[in-house]
Amino acid sequence: MSESAVLLDVRDVTKSYAASPVALEVLKGVNLSLRRGESVAVVGPSGCGKSTLLNLIGALDTPSSGSIWFEGRALDGLNHRELARFRNASVGFVFQFHHLLPQCTALENVLVPALVNGGARDRRARALELLERVGLGERAGYRPGQLSGGERQRVAVVRALINRPRLLLADEPTGALNEEGAAKLVALLLELSREEDMTLLVVTHAGQVAAQMDRILELRAGRLEPGERGT
Ligand code: ADP
């Protein structure tokens, strides 16, 4: 694989949490290379360390050992400002629960990461365009309480995309949706990642969600292995 085709490289990453009486080693040497534009699912039972891995990749936490490289730069070599910028602009996060601000409209929620990035004005047009793209053009002025679960999750997806991240990290993005809502959201994530030339890393329990990604990896005993393709 040529260097420029690689977006993210996770090299021999371990992560332990201090817990009595002994430290809990959740990740025991994880290796992962993500190419630009590909979609990858990480599956595994609850508690095996999937969210831990996503948090490390998104620089929300730091590995105990090993290194994470994004576009050829090691995250542990970035200074405070560069790291903040990485979290805000290079990666987008979608979680199981939407975490939208209840008092803000869909449009305002979507613009929150753009405010941090100092470009809310330019982003307004993009926000409206993306809301339209996900079928919420008419609902830009609605508050989360006035939207369905699937609609709220779509707002959360648009919020994650507002700063044009190269990598979208999704942690059980369909966990709070019914089967139909889940299928729609996954189709949307895949379409948007193609349109936006974005790499998609999805942590999921759902075999049907995983089956739609280019690759499936299984986190087992602290390591990533090729996973089985479900039906
Ligand atoms: P998953 O996402 O696969 O359900 P997690 O990454 O959330 O798994 O958690 C993996 C293990 O690490 C669990 O045993 C969990 O209790 C533990 N853990 C997660 N975060 C912390 C933390 N901040 N401090 C201590 N233990 C943690």
Describe the structure.
With 231 residues, the protein is α/β, with parallel strands linked by helices. It folds into two domains: 1-90 and 166-175 and 189-231, Rossmann fold; 98-164, no CATH class. It is 34% helix and 26% strand. It has helices at 50-57, 80-90, 106-116, 120-133, 149-161, 179-195, 207-210; strands at residues 6-17, 24-35, 39-43, 65-70, 73-74, 91-94, 167-171, 199-203, 215-220, 223-226. Strands 6-7-8-3-9-10 form a six-stranded mixed beta sheet, sandwiched between helices. Helix 3 crosses helix 4 and helix 3 (106-116) runs parallel beside helix 5. The longest helix is centred in the C-terminal third of the chain and has 17 residues, at 179-195. The model has no long low-confidence stretch (mean pLDDT 91). The site of adenosine-5'-diphosphate has 12 residues, from strand 2 and helix 1. Adenosine-5'-diphosphate (ADP) binds at residues 17, 19, 24, 26, 44, 46-52.
List key phrases describing it.
231 residues; alpha/beta; Rossmann fold; 2 domains; six-stranded mixed beta sheet; four-stranded antiparallel beta sheet; 7 helices; 34% helix; binds adenosine-5'-diphosphate
